[in-house]
Amino acid sequence: MRTFTKTLWGTSAVVLTLAGAASAEPIEVKVFISAMFEIGENSGDRAGEYQHWYERYWQDAAPQEVPGAIAPVHCNDEGVCGSVLGMGKVNAAASMQAILLNPAYDFSDAYYLITGVAGTPPSRGTIGDVVWASWLIDYDLGHRWAPEEGEPGEPVFMPRKGYEEYRVHELNPNLVAWGIELSSDVALKDSEEAQTYRMRYPDAAAQAAPSVKVGTHMTGDTFFHGPGLSDEAQYMAELYEADDYLVTEMEDNAIAQVINRLHGTDRIAAIRGSVNFDQGHPDETTLQHLDPAPGETAGGFAETVENIALVGAPLVDRIVADWEAWKDGVPAVVAD
Question: Which of 73, 74, 89, 109 fits a disulfide with 58 by CB distance 3.0 to 4.6 angstroms?
């Protein structure tokens, strides 16, 4: 197979092409793990969203270049594959579609684990939490106006007709239940910096130690911030009759929409680790929180990206180990 060198995420790597791969037997994908960015190398330096997954599953895997995807795909011999899809809805969706349509892979029976970092409202979460998604909601696909142009105190968002099938996905409750059960005893990492930072917030949830939670992931390219927009995200969750808004991120609903068009959503799981609050504490403005002074950041990033893999890996490993029970669909009963 021909090889070439490509510069990716600041790294020069030898990448195997998939030219001619269509004539070979496609790789049977059992689980596909997606992350949105990596900071440097895939192993051995400061970890972004992908590194802990790479070190767990693909240390010996050759990178496979996929036309249209932003980064190579890695697969191990057990059918666990993964890739960095890129940040934002367009990047992530385009990469996911390119990978799904590539004939080198057989996604007929695949499960999907969408992963990454996120923000959380201090009233419901804290730094280091990992949240299983029960619902994925697109923060956009509607109408918005300035508060002073509407009724005082009323919401400034209205859904746009025609997007009903795109803007909300309820994930398979049975698969979510499996994820929660298998990660219920995971000991999450924490840091002194995050512990100190939490105390700036009066909310009991913000001050708590990291834990595994479940709720709505809100997908928006807009990095919305502040108590007003946080309240709006919760309003949207209630408007769509979903669970409470726990996570703000930029890709999940878009990725799910791409998968849904080809394979449905029954085999999609999503987890996000909270590395920031979606608003400042009572003694700072929203703009101050968006641009913190040196030493004023939340901390806990390294611990949170490790937590994401710690929480998600038990589900991946169970699916692969018990493949005959999972191949035809999510088993009906959560049991050890």
Answer: 74
Q: What are phi and psi of 313, to 5 degrees?
A: -60, -40
Q: How far is CA 49 from CA 20, 82, 163, 275, 335, in A?
A: 31, 12, 30, 12, 29
Q: Is a pLDDT exceeding 90 seen at residue 319? A: yes
Partners of 194 in the beta sheet? none
Three state DSSP letters for 168-234 = EEECCHHHHHHHHHHHCCCCCCCCHHHHHHHCCCCCHHHHCCCCEEEEEEEECCCCCCCHHHHHHHH
What is the arithmetic mean of pLDDT over 54-72? 96
User: Which residue(s) pair with 43 in the sheet?
Assistant: none
Q: Tell me which residue has tokens 């992931």.
A: 217
Does the domain at 115-325 match CATH 3.40.50? Answer given as: yes
Nearest Cα neighbor of 137 from 219, 214, 215, 213 is: 219
Task: State how far the alpha carbon of 263 is from the alpha carbons of 62, 109, 155, 292, 320, in Å.
Answer: 26, 9, 35, 42, 19
Sign of CA dihedral 304, 259, 56, 38: negative
Amino acid 327 reads K
pLDDT value at 1 more than 80: no
What is the number of helices (H) and of strands (E) in the chain? 10, 15
